[in-house]
Amino acid sequence: MNQRQDGGRQGGPKGGGRHRHRKPKGRALDGWLIVDKPSGIGSTDVVNKVKRAFDAQKAGHGGTLDPLATGLLPVAFGAATKTVPYVMDGTKTYNFTLKFGEARDTDDADGQVVATSEVRPTDAEIEAVLPAFRGEIMQVPPAYSAIKIGGERAYDLAREGQLVEIAARPARIDRFDLIARPDADTAIFHVQSGKGVYMRSLARDVARAVGSVGHIIALRRLRVGPFREEHAIPLDRLIGNGDMPSPSPDLLLPVTTALADIPALAVTGEEAARLHQGQAISLVELMGRVPREADPEGGLLRAMAGERLLGLCRLESGWMQPERLIQLDSGQGAGGED
Q: Which fold has domain 262-325?
């Protein structure tokens, strides 16, 4: 690949300039790719595969899926990586299958059996415990999770045979329904939740609540924030067998798609310049333009100059403060710097 010097002006003679910036490898792509992840592969491996397939400079994912899980894995390219936290804060929906009778150390089918039970609950017994898992609850994450304990990942400690104790943390479950009962050993649930809820913990705790033990044998993510199954492309269609040409950038959704649920505010050229300088703007100046659905105390707004996204701003104490500026050049500019 032709390694041009940035801008073609500042490089000087060959070999000169210790601090010359090298052009990043790959194409400068901005946008979201929604991958339908198959079972048996980790989220980071998926990102690496599609990054290679697209020959992209920069990519990351919007919310980890366990290797066993299938479904939506949003992959952010370039400037879209700046919007990852807002995607991860969005609503997520899942279907999972709980198998009663065996507890596993990973709380899913990939782990080792650590306890057994002969108890198989009725549908009515399952329905009776579900209300306790709806709304704001406290949840203990699985021992095999990426949570850090004393600077170490919990799953690394668990693999070394150490006893992992993770404190309960708040979780929000908006919906939790029993949707099918294939047989006495299994039950299928639909869940709608907020950020950071572990489906493996939910399955484990429901099994305990009905006097049994259990683990997840199937898990599928159906939605992440504004992204839904109709947006998803199977991984094998993107990477093929290695002989396929690079996928088209036309498969990427715009960066702004991730922010569709955040109210938009049109700003003037002068206001845009002030935001880029880090200046807050009084809501008095914006009177009549702030969307009604925006929360004046702590809410987010999408600052737009016509059709162009400038970034995200936070409303606080009568001011609109720039929080995350996002540079895009006509949709595919080199906006992927941190």
A: 2.30.130
Residue reference for tokens 């006097």: 211
DSSP structure class, residue 127: H
Q: Which residues of the chain have pLDDT under 70?
A: 1-23, 241-244, 327-338
Residues 75-134: tens digit of each pLDDT: 999 989 988 888 888 899 999 999 999 999 999 999 999 999 999 999 999 999 999 999
Sign for the pseudo-dihedral over CA of 7, 13, 18, 22: positive
Total-model pTM = 0.80
Catalytic residue among 66, 105, 107, 205: 66
Answer whether CATH 3.30.2350.10 is correct for domain 92-224: yes
Q: Which CATH superfamily is domain 25-89+227-256 in?
A: Pseudouridine synthase (3.30.2350.10)
Active-site residue 66, yes or no?
A: yes
What is the CA angle 161-137-148, rounded to 5?
35
Amino acid at 235: L
Residues of the chain with CATH 3.30.2350.10: 25-89+227-256, 92-224
